[in-house]
Structures are given as structure tokens and as C-alpha cells.
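CORE FACILITY INTAKE
Project code: CF-77B
Contact: R.S. (postdoc)
Sample description: multi-component assembly, two entities in total
Requested service: structural model of the whole complex
Turnaround: standard
Below are the sequence entries exactly as provided by the requester. Do not edit them.
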Amino acid sequence: LNEAQLLAWLRRSVDPTGRWIGDDAAFLPAGDGWALSVDHQIAGTHYPVDLDPATVGRRLVAVNLSDLAATGARPAYALLALAAPAGYDAQRLLAAVDAQLREVGARLVGGDLARAQPCVASLTVVGRRYPRGRWLRRDAAQPGDVLWLGGTVGESVAGRLWIERGALPRKSATGRQPRFEWPPALELELRSRRLLAPARRAILRHLAPTPQLGLSRWLALRPRAAAIDISDGLALDLHRLCRASRLGAEIDAARLPLPRSFDRLASALRQSPLELALGGGEDYVLLFALPEGQLPPPRWRSTAIGRCVRQESVVLIRDGERIPLTASGWDHFVEA
Amino acid sequence: LNEAQLLAWLRRSVDPTGRWIGDDAAFLPAGDGWALSVDHQIAGTHYPVDLDPATVGRRLVAVNLSDLAATGARPAYALLALAAPAGYDAQRLLAAVDAQLREVGARLVGGDLARAQPCVASLTVVGRRYPRGRWLRRDAAQPGDVLWLGGTVGESVAGRLWIERGALPRKSATGRQPRFEWPPALELELRSRRLLAPARRAILRHLAPTPQLGLSRWLALRPRAAAIDISDGLALDLHRLCRASRLGAEIDAARLPLPRSFDRLASALRQSPLELALGGGEDYVLLFALPEGQLPPPRWRSTAIGRCVRQESVVLIRDGERIPLTASGWDHFVEA
């Protein structure tokens, strides 16, 4: 069984009404206004084994906060379960988790520490509904809604590919931003192609994503909005939103927001920029649907990429051609 | 840093007021009445690698529910983070977690699945304060209070030692109770000493502990009670309760509730029964302090083992002798 099949089984057997499982966080009964989510970061699966524990801690918080952003929940509390090998600098990871949570007004309230090799960290986050806000759900889209992306896609997977090619993030003194060492040949190649800065940005985007809490709050205060975060790739996450809302979508390849210099970056990685953007994953921007005419404020830098349609299939329009889009995203449980 | 030192550092830096960290679960702000806790089960650390995934799932739920029992919280929700190797029967574990939660009226509401070797499972449990109940805290004991144990101690670690000597729990068809295979020489030895049944009970106690939710509810409805669950050994957990309440304790060795045939079982393991009872851990019974004269109903099978005293030291009284008791429990992060 892969993750999708397991979750489908779990939904049928545990939650036939679809009340709990299926959004990025679980909503506790309405009156209370709490949402909960849990996400892993595993050494060797989600990040290189020798990554600075502070960077691991910040990434762990970021991916979890992104789930709260996708559901319109204000971060409130978190609990950390950390299993780490002997000699691991758990304190550095804990301090980073604590600092990152404080930045968004949340508190670390509990945890469990144990020994394991490799390092496995899981964070449970607890969020609260915004005053006068609504939960954001995947199933709230309607035909005719405009589909938006809260930021660029494809950059995170490019960063991961550079890391796989040997870019090594190192501890930085400040702990705020990871620094890098490049294999000399790779650095020379990137420098000659003027790609050192875009590659560094891609790696930072991969290691230190920014959950879109501000945009999430704006969306939670709309009369109606559907949302999901791009964790497993635009194609798969768009399919999830469409399936939950029982509709289809048409998106325009020319409108997909890509990072600066992305064509050249993808070419240096021998990848298609469109495939990176559609299938890459771990971008942690929001994909959301709004009724036509509702425009997100410019400060959230959102881009309209298409619209929801009644027919339950997902279509990519490229150069006037209509291409059926499969859910070829990244299934953590199969490929990770 | 060991777990205790890390938690002490975390308490100082994250939670100087002691509001969040220090009990078995974290209490969210008073008006809401929620308690949260997280606990790991790691293959090779907490249980044998080839243990039936259903048994792993039930143990994972039990140790977490014990934290809710220790704080007087009624189990409500849980989230599972599971990192498992390829081919692992995750569905069997999930089904067991779900069934065990339903038995106590709680629901699995979310999760995250990923690949890792070995299997690391962490469960976050969310509990609610009982109507008209109080949270149970470690810091509520007062000098003169009677100290009680909600069940026997020492049996779980004896079970672990038998497992280390080769007793292999196997999948059972019903999934309710693990069955065993013994190395032939060990089975012969146990049979000749008439210890097969007590050893089997000890292993079941270790693998499938019973969280004391009924006793917890009774305690939560008292005017004042302090409680902790025995996860790291009576000595260490008693020290924790005393430290939190800023007092000491005197306990009577002759009154410690030990399992049937425990002297003979310990002797077959070449262990002192008293040391197993004091230092073993993972018994998951409640240690609690009640004002003198408050007697727990007989159905909870609790035993008075001593009392709280003003002087901040912990003393074991054995054969009329007063022996200072150190906190020589099991620190997960150092020894596990």
C-alpha cells in the first residue's frame, strides 16, 4: 500500500463521513475552533543526513505551519517527538524549533525524546480559527472559481536536485541561513553559467520554505475559499483539491509562476521547467480557489493560473493544446 | 545532554513559568480544557524489531493514554506519525491504533506516513478535562499526603528482560493478545521452575500495558490529588513528583505491590525484586498523592506505599532501616 491507498483505507474505515481526514489538518468539533496536524522530517528521506540540526528544526516547523496555513488556522501550540542518534545536537534543533514557533506567535508545549538512527523528528501543530474566520477546506471550490498560486512552484525540487548533486549546506554561525559548500567542479560550472545565485536561492527555498500564514489569514476571512498547500507537487495537489470539490480544472502553462532564471536552472539540471513546476513538490505555497472577481491583495504576490470547471478532469493548456494532466506528484510513502 | 538535562534546558528557555512543560501532558489555557501529549515507539529501542505491528500500535496508544491518565484528561483525539521501512504492514498498525483509540472513546483524526528504517511511530493524543474535573498535576502533593500506587511495579521490566533472553512475541490471528515462541532451553527452564505463566504475564504486561483511565477519572474528581504515571521507574517518577511539589517522601519497601510469584521470577532473571520494582519502568500505573483519609475505591486495586514529608529527600524504609533513594530510573535518552 502506498500513502494514498493507506489514507483512503483509513478514511473509509475510520472516518466514513469525511469529517476529520482529508484536509491538511484535522478540525476538532466546530465549537472549539482547533485544527491539528502532524508532519515528519526524516534524515536521508527529507533532507541530507548531515544537515545542520537548526535547519532541520526550522524546516520541520515550516512544513507543519504550511498545513495550518492551508486550513486557515492561526498557529498556537506544538509538540515535538524527536528520535536522534547518540551525539546529535538535539538542543540546537530544539532551539530552532522554539524560535521559529515564537516568530509566528506559537509555543512549544511538549515533547518526547528518544534514541534512533537515523534522526526522525515529528511535530504536531495546533492551530486556532481566526476570529470571524472560516476554516479553509479542499472541498469548497465551485465551477467557475479562479485558481491561484500563492508563489512560485518548481524551485524547491530544483534545490533538492542541487543538494543531490553535492551542494552541502553547512552550519552558519548565526543559525538563520544555511551556508553552502559546493563540489569545486559544480561551483565552476554554476559560476560560468551565472547560476550560482539562483541555485543557492533554490536550495534555500528547499531547506527553509516560508509558510504562507498571511495569505492564509486573508483567505480565511473571505466568504468562501478553498485551499491546499503544494507539498507533493502542483499536479497531485490540484487533483486532490478537484477530487474533494468534485470538479475539474483547466490551468494555463504560460501562467504558471516560475522563479527567476528558472529555464536556465532547469536546463543545467537537464530537466523540463514545466515538469519541475508540475511534479516537483515541497514548494509550500498555497493553491486556492476564489469566486471570480475576488482578487488577493498584491502583497501576497499570487498568480491566477486557471479555473475550476464542472467536468471532473484536470487539463493543462499549453500552446493552445489541451493536455490531460495526471496526478503524477510525489507520493511520500512510495518514493521517499 | 540526556533527556532530563534537555528538558530542564527547554523548561528554562521555553517555559520559565512552568505553565506548560513538566507534567505528563501539556495543558492548553484553562478555559479550553485540553491536554496534549506525544510519545514515541521505536523498533529496536522500545520493542523488538520483529514485533507484530498490531502489538506495536496498541502499545503506542497505551503509553500515550497513560500520559493522559496521569493528567486527568479524557482521551478525545489522536494523530499518528509513522515512518516505516518498505514492506512494513502499516495498515495492521493503523487498524490496531484505531481500534484501541475507539475502545476509550477517542478518534484518530490525522497522520503522516513516511519511509524510514527502523520503524518510528509517534502518537500525539489530545484529551479533555472531565466535566467538573481538575487536571492532575505533579506539583499538587502536600506534606502528610498518602502516596499510592495504582497497580504492581516491576513486572514490565521483567517482561522486557525475558524478551531480551529470546521470548519472541508472534502475530496472533485475533490480534488481541500476542502469542509467544520461547527458545526451547528457556521454555524448559521456565516450565521446570513453574514460571511459564508468570513470565508470559510479564511479557504481556510489558507489550500491552493498560492505562489507568478509570482511576484517573476518579482522581480528577477529587478536591486535590497529585499524580504521575510510572514510565521511567518508581524511584525516578517519585523523585519527579516530589521535586515538582517541593517535598520529600518516605516509602515502605514491604508495602510495594509486586506481581504474583515475583520473587521467583526475579530470581530466575538473577535480579533483585526490589530493584526491578524501583528502577524498572514502563509499568504505566499511576503514582498518586491524596490527603490522609481519602481512600481510592477498592476496584482500582491501589496500594498505599508511604507518605509525603516536608524534608526534600526520598527515603525507602526496609527492615526498619532508612535508605536514601536515588532517582536511578531509566533515562530514555541516555540508555535507550
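Facility notes:
- Chain A has a mean pLDDT of 89.
- The CA atoms of residues 2 and 334 of chain A lie 5 Å apart.
Invoice: internal transfer
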